[in-house]
## 1
Amino acid sequence: MNIPGLHHVTAIASDPQRNLDFYAGVLGLRLVKRTINFDDPGSHHFYFGDEAGTPGTILTFFPWPNARRGARGSGEVTTTAYAIPAEATGYWIERLQRLGVKADRPARRFGEEVLRFSDPDGMAIELIAAAHPGAIQTWQGGPVPAEQALCGFHSVSATLDDPAGTARLLTETFGYRLAGEAGNRLRFTATGEPGLGQSIDLVQVEGAARGQLGAGSVHHIAFRASNEAQQLAWREKLSRLGHGVSPVMDRTYFHSIYFREPGGVLFEIATDGPGFAIDESVAELGTQLRLPSWMEKSRERIEEILPRITLPTEAIL
Ligand code: ZN
């Protein structure tokens, strides 16, 4: 039993409209689900992904309009990287510049070209020109042509004071292998068939202060389990190894278990199913506010208190 790769990344944002305009408008991702934070019905929960919201393409946000900005530090994921087609870097340099997004000059890492910039809340995003980007159904209702579209996650980078415990978890328990080492960066990659989001980089910054959660922070990352049975097997295995694992939680679009890995990063293992088409058709994904059945009776009130947003249309950019 090995982990095949990332399922989703969940982060905190401030202004919902600005978040939507950046990820759908600038980066061309599809808003695949618009729902609310089940623990805080006055705020949105956005899910961005490919056309169908394939595991390994999903970035989710809790946008809290007045959220204070977080501070990057150890014990958290500090960079989220998407794969782009090998020839697409030039397109993205030009596009980001035209839309007023300041990117660093492209750098090379493990033989691949990396374009780095921040989202409006200061969250670090990288576009990595991959020799073999994942085959996904890129969203063609947005502003970015298929040849240049983001191809799901490439990797995430976690900053750690001491990566030893995390490295052991990845290799001895998850089945990842050490795939590269450069300076203070270790790259671990899932074994098995090539797929989306298979790498995680551990960046050692000795003595780094703990990250402070806020807007622009990654709250947790989720790895994939193909079904409920496998998730339960993971729960048992991790518990046996002494990780304090949460009970299984029903997140409507997948089921989740959570635990804090030895380096302090919140890890989740999420099932591939049932997926985003459980409460609206693939064609309609993200077009309406979706609520879990037990909250439908409060829809009117919820719609009233949620911050107003305008859904992205092709006309934005
Ligand atoms: Zn999650």
## 2
Amino acid sequence: MPVHRDPALEALVARVSAAFARAFGGEPAIVVAAPGRVNLIGEHTDYNDGFVLPAAIDRHVVIAARPRPDRIVRLHAADIGAAGASSTFNLADIRPDTEQRWSNYERGVAWALQGADQGGGAAYTLVGMDAAIAGDVPIGSGLSSSAAVEVATAQAFQTLSGIDLDGVQRALLCQKAENEFVGMRCGIMDQYIISLGRRDHALLIDCRSLEYRLVPIPSGVRLVICDTNKRRGLVDSEYNTRRDECEAGARALGVPALRDVSVEQFGVREAGLPEVTRRRCRHVITENARVLEAVVALEAGQLARCGELMNASHVSLRDDYEVSCIELDAMVEAAWRQPGVFGARMTGAGFGGCTVNLVEEGAVEAFRRDVARAYTRATGLEPSIYVCAAEDGVRLLSGA
Ligand code: GLA
């Protein structure tokens, strides 16, 4: 086992390996870890061909797996129920599991890798496997635990089946699994950053060209994630509605995607749009500009400016895109009042889940205490607060 600097990850690897031994007997051949993610800025821009600035975080989904001589995949989820939960499928006939719904992410990835619907397109031959899985990415909090499961599964199949896929191809196949097998029309951000993240960096991703640039997280600041512990309701239906509204906006503006409209061009043309479409477009178009400016600010060490852009992103998501909620607003407002906070905003799809905060290192402990207290006073809910480091994307921890 290679040395990990991360004790939480080590503990997770030990837990998954023990679950593997209990479920299947013996040792796994490989262990794979995929991180969760947090988005610094660039929300609801990825499916508009725009820009995002996420980082992978030091919370993981770990899979321990061993190949099988047949085409059966047996999955054991160590985190579900007292004894864990199991789901088995045949690679020759992959269908959704209506009972063990968690397994649909793994099934979808196998389906996408095999090119089930591609009629002669790129299709890979997979070997069966026994796999145990567990994680410490909070589930349903908007930190992409499901994309981490997808990317870890893809990496496990790739390694055991000897498939050569680069990080972008892997991300696209995992997105396809989520869009077409699971049925959530997400953009590319989550699978991309989980596939290609880099320790101590955020990635500026161009969601049209699928190219990225590394943006170092300046020293002396921490990424603090505050989970409202308000589970995300409405998210799927509202997410799809927002996508439709953006597509309608792009059509009305006569462009392939909202990415193609500058803030100045929008200023000239917005009056012709219906009110709701106008506000949705304004969010996306100004958010793209904020991402690019935030990268310049971060690279110049102008943390205050970066923070202002994060705050403006929250206001735009709250008022124009209407994907915030009382709990997210309360958490962000508590952070805005706190000393040593450069910026705070909701992160992820919205309607609950987490905020992301750029906090001066020396101010983190007071932040934890005071923001938690203010949030509880405002909402009656206990938050969870995670001080995170930017991590590498998916990794093979052992085996070849
Ligand atoms: C979810 C989706 C992403 C992205 C964000 C909003 O996390 O999976 O593709 O659209 O919402 O920025």
